Backbone:
């Protein structure tokens, strides 16, 4: 006889498949709406180009001229997006005009640019070249350098850098000839988070314990093993020790006068290179190198931005660095760059603009403005009201400071309806505007609920939701722990040791969803998500889903009408014809998407399927049926006692586009592997009335999925023709 098969909303991964009777236990690219599962909406690429690096900041606003802007900060470059175009607005740290700047070698793609002094550039930094003058003995020309961004390949010395060209030098090779202007972009940071430190991580590597420096006494090539230092008296001379010169690490086992003995070149995942006399030599024996165990709980954070707007001005902070402004209402605004805010702190972990009082607030910032060594991870500083250039408190302004007490560092902060939520690694504080003389009041609202990652919190409808290393939390006047039926799965899956800072929260207010995107233990980049439906959840039945949607930043639909987000691909680069092209980019690219549009993914003009699926727990011949709310007595008669045979099922979709696949997953015992019915999977169209099956098992699970483009579905209530089929 026909029997309806009903399932509770949401995914429950806290139970076994057999224990998940009447529940859904797994899914991908599925949401629940009004208690019913459906495929999520599609997404399409915005703009013809990609952006360089991993997107780590996204802010959107309408300026006073009615122009909509997205400010996108990657670990390399700051962009303004408007009207389908990405504009490079990254601030310039230094501009240097050089003559006799180039050195090239026939058959090599490497170009050395020589400076007259210390350039302050590190490998991986971005430089923009222009004002080119010809190179002799070279086939390179102005088109190869003018108005082209390069990622610096190596830094052989403090006065030289190398860049990599797309084609090898065909001329005899230039030597100290030609000129150029080099615009050095402010550094942001690495594309991913890493555990420990090492020289292979460029300027962000190395845990130093009493480093000693000297200089190289004579030139050496990449194969030389006789290395003489100007003064080696303070360098360790017994055991295996290390020095660094440029980006190369070298090991040695002894010292004879000032000459190193037992030399091995290019160790610790570095490459042997030539070095000139006078190059700085650093004793790196007490550095923790990449691939070695760190001496403590050391984490290399990815390159982050904090982004907001103060009226027409976009406010852009490099995490642990400087803060900049970009005037969106200026004449030819998209042709201008962000500039440093005078008078502001120069090293801060986080930043936002308070509303409606309009103070620029810095978190984890300097106790002495302009002195980076005074950065205190628990210190807060805010500007005078309506003045982003004044931070020194006086009797006549509202600038001020505050240091929090619970925790070791401020992780992040978000604006709420009536307060700023300030998170440390252990606690939650509320920052409320109270006016003079105190400006802000600070109240601790929770303990043992710290923020896992800088961007792991959102606020909606007067409530804050966040991802903590101790679980999921909510604050709406009181601290609550969110019940989560996928909690063990997520916390076992996530890479908290070296990926917590990459956890990103996103709000999709169109469907009442909060998503957290995270990297798994097997991945160095964001590749999974977990979603909470705050609109339809109840304390008795919280609605959670999981999936493979991977986004490094996400913004709700408030400005553009649809959610926007970026996806990072570490293994691709932008084509040379792209307006965002960076020659020598090794960090990958990010693609900018608009979500909840259509049924498929549209990327670069290519349409591909978004495959969605949902899998139920096992059900048997007699499901657990509640006789009545008053008795609350379950009918357990024959629960799993008999084998069952399913002769047919009647599909029911509230809405369906294209075909849908239905599979009956069979097993006889809980520890058996699931097997598909012999006639399945079954293709269901919008006109399918019934499907004949030949399925026999003690326990059966239902899987619904789509596999091709132009397909979507919303599930109704299936009916199955089930009959007992004996005990064997």
Residues:
């Amino acid at each position: 006889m026909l029997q309806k098969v009903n399932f509770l909303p949401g995914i429950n991964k806290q139970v076994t498949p057999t224990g998940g009777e009447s529940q859904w236990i797994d899914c991908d690219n599925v949401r629940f709406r009004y208690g019913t599962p459906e495929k999520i909406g599609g997404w399409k690429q915005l703009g013809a180009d990609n952006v360089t690096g991993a997107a780590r900041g996204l802010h959107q606003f309408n300026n006073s001229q009615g122009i909509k802007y997205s400010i996108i900060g990657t670990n390399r470059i700051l962009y303004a997006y408007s009207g389908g175009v990405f504009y490079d607005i990254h601030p310039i740290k230094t501009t240097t005009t050089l003559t006799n700047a180039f050195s090239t070698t026939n058959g090599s793609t490497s170009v050395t640019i020589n400076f007259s002094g210390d350039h302050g550039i590190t490998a991986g930094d971005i430089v923009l070249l222009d004002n080119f003058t010809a190179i002799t003995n070279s086939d390179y020309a102005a088109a190869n350098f003018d108005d082209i961004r390069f990622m610096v390949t190596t830094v052989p010395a403090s006065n030289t850098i190398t860049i990599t060209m797309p084609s090898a030098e065909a001329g005899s090779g230039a030597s100290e000839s030609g000129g150029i202007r080099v615009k050095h972009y402010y550094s942001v940071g690495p594309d991913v988070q890493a555990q420990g430190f090492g020289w292979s991580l460029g300027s962000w590597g190395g845990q130093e314990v009493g480093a000693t420096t000297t200089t190289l006494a004579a030139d050496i090539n990449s194969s030389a093993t006789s290395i003489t230092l100007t003064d080696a008296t303070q360098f360790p001379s017994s055991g295996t020790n290390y020095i660094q010169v440029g980006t190369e690490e070298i090991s040695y086992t002894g010292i004879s006068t000032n000459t190193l003995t037992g030399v091995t070149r290019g160790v610790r995942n570095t490459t042997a290179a030539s070095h000139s006399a006078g190059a700085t030599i650093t004793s790196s024996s007490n550095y923790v190198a990449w691939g070695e165990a760190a001496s403590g709980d050391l984490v290399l954070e990815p390159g982050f931005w904090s982004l907001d707007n103060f009226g027409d001005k976009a406010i852009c902070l490099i995490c642990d660095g400087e803060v900049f402004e970009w005037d969106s209402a200026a004449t030819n605004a998209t042709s201008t760059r962000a500039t440093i805010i005078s008078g502001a702190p120069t090293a801060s972990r986080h930043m936002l603009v308070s509303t409606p009082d309009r103070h620029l607030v810095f978190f984890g910032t300097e106790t002495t403005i302009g002195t980076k060594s005074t950065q205190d991870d628990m210190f807060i500083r805010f500007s005078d009201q309506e003045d982003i250039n004044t931070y020194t408190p006086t009797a006549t302004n509202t600038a001020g400071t505050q240091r929090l007490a619970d925790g070791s560092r401020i992780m992040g902060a978000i604006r709420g309806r009536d307060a700023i939520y300030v998170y440390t690694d252990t606690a939650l504080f509320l920052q409320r505007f109270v006016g003079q003389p105190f400006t802000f009041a600070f109240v601790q609202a929770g303990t043992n609920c710290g923020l896992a990652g800088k961007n792991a919190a959102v606020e909606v409808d007067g409530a804050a939701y966040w991802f903590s290393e101790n679980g999921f939390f909510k604050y709406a006047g009181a601290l609550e722990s969110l019940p989560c039926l996928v909690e063990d799965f997520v916390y076992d899956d996530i890479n908290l040791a070296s990926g917590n800072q990459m956890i990103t929260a996103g709000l999709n207010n169109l469907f009442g969803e909060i998503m957290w995107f995270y990297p798994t233990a097997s991945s160095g980049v964001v590749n999974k998500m977990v979603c909470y439906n705050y609109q339809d959840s109840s304390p008795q039945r919280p609605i959670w889903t999981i999936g493979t949607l991977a986004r490094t930043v996400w913004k709700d639909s408030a400005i553009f009408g649809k959610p926007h987000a970026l996806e990072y691909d570490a293994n691709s680069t932008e084509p040379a014809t792209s307006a965002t092209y960076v020659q020598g980019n090794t960090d990958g690219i990010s693609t900018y998407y608009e979500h909840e549009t259509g049924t498929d993914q549209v990327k670069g003009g290519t349409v591909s399927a978004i495959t969605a699926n949902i899998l139920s727990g096992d059900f048997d011949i007699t499901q657990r049926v509640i006789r009545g709310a008053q008795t609350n007595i379950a009918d357990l008669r024959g629960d799993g006692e008999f084998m069952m045979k399913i002769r047919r099922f009647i599909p029911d979709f509230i809405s369906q586009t294209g075909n849908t696949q239905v599979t009956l997953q069979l097993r006889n015992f809980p520890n058996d592997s699931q097997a598909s019915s012999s006639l399945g999977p079954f293709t269901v169209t919008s006109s399918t009335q019934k499907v004949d099956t030949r399925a026999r098992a003690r326990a059966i699970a239902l899987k619904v999925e789509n596999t091709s483009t132009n397909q979507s579905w919303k599930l109704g209530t299936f009916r199955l023709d089930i009959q007992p089929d004996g005990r064997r």
Observations:
- Residues 92-185 form a domain with the Elongation Factor Tu (Ef-tu); domain 3 fold (CATH 2.40.30.20).
